[in-house]
Each structure stands twice: as C-alpha cells, then as structure tokens.
Amino acid sequence: MLHGEFLLFPMEFSRSNTGYFIAFMLLGGVLGSALGTLLVNFFPGADFITSSLTNPIGFNLEIISFSLRLNLASIIGIVAGIILFRRI
Question: Fewer Cβ neighbours under 10 Å: the N or C end of the chain?
C-alpha cells in the first residue's frame, strides 16, 4: 500500500531532499515564465505579468553566461512549484 502511504506523508523540506526542492522551484519558475509569455501573446493587455521586477541578475565567465530576471509569472510558478513539492 505504498500509494496510500505516499498520500498520508507529503514530502517535507529537509536536507535529504533539498535537491528536489530546488528543482521544483526552478522548474516552477521556468514554466511560470513560459506560461506567462504565452498568456501575453493571447492577451496583450496582460503584459504586466511578464514585466521585469528586477534588473537581470547574473554572471558572465566568457565561455558561459547566466542571467536571471524575475517577473510576476515566474514568482507565481515558483510558489506553485513549492506547493506541488509539499503535496507530493
């Protein structure tokens, strides 16, 4: 009855599953941002969802660069990822 136990004991944040927690947050942020962009394509009046809340945060190492830009859609995705993590 693994499935029943799975539902009774939701996953909680601890050192043993920190990687999963970060992965859920990152995936939620990426999916939230992508869905926000898709929503703005269908409803241009909702462009406030994808407007940047911060300046790009990142680094450039000449061979690889990385930047992060937070917007409302990505924050909603991160929160959804955390909620999903807690439910699973």
Answer: N
Which segments within 1-88 are labelled E, that is strand?
57-60, 65-68
State the distance between the two ends of the chain, measured CA to CA, in whole angstroms.
16
Distance separating alpha carbons of residues 30 and 51, to the nearest angstrom: 15
CA–CA distance, 35 with 38 (Å, rounded to integer): 5
With beta carbons less than 8 A apart as the criterion, state whether 81 and 28 touch.
Answer: yes
Residue 81 burial by Cβ neighbours in a 10 Å radius (0-12, 13-18, 19+): buried
